[in-house]
Amino acid sequence: MSNCSNCYNGCTEIVSDRCVKYTGIDVPVLGIQTGDSLSFVEQALITFLVSTLDGTGVKIDLGTTVVCELVQKYLPTCKDLSIVDISKALIEAACDLQEQIDAIVAELAILNADYNIGCLAGVTASSDTHAIVQATINKVCELEVDLIALALDLTTNYVTIADIDSYIEAYINGVTALVSAKMIPYVAVPFFPTPAFLTGKFDGTGAGIGTWTKIYLCNGANPGVPDLRGRVLVGATTGMNGGAMNPAVNPGGANPNYFLGTTVGANEITLLSTQIPSHTHVATAVSTVTDPKHKHDYTVPNAEGSASGAADNHPDGPIVTRQTSESLTGITVATSVTNQVTGGGLAHPNNQPAYGCYYIIYIP
Question: Domain of 12?
Fold first, then answer.
């Protein structure tokens, strides 16, 4: 370093590089200025080289460079950025991306697994995710169309439960004025009309006329119409199916077998002698006969020989008939007996509590 010869006159250092003075140009990036000792310059160079080699001394001004958020979150914010800081940030960002990619690949592996396609059309279980998603979208769109049609159908052809009664009433009143439209066929219905109401409703046979056509009074005067005058209804025991009947109504003994249309029973019943309870009567003697005095005949052998009325063939010889003297037995015998007469032989009423009404029936 010829420029440094004799430039450090009077230097007290025993180390030469501390006595040698740098006379070159200033190097701000290295922190070197003219007049620095050779040892300072050497140290500055070494420090720079070391920081350059390990990257800590290589400062990078990113300036207006756009740094993505992924890298930005790994960069220090309180100092100048070195190539080491940037390298670390890039590496960490790359690792972060790799983790995300691995997670996405794992998700894709799940997504690309075989699907249970169910009602989807145009795809198979092994179709890719895009095809499956598209088929799902298509199905949803079809369902939307069906739902719109269903909603329209429900609005047009169906009513809520709360409104059904008013719709039925409006339908019945609007479609026909016939009373039969409001009745169930072949069902006898109790009917409590006033005399004024009946006027103009039925003819002389009990058949309905006008708006009451095909409705009949149940008087048996028209074909297929039962005669329910003075009768109560009872369920038939035949043709009804079902399980075993209750013993109280099961046909047998006093229980009759009811067929459809059977007519049994009467308002009055006269009991037979076999139907009344077992009982006794007190007998009263009307006349009596008391035993008068009487005699008894008897026979004995007649030692004197035959006599009038005697039998000669008796082994002991001829016999003769004789009588005892009159005597009383004290016996009284009734010649006639009568029982006390009871009962009038009349029928008894056989009516249950009832309330009179008309029955009407609709026969199509």
Answer: 2-54
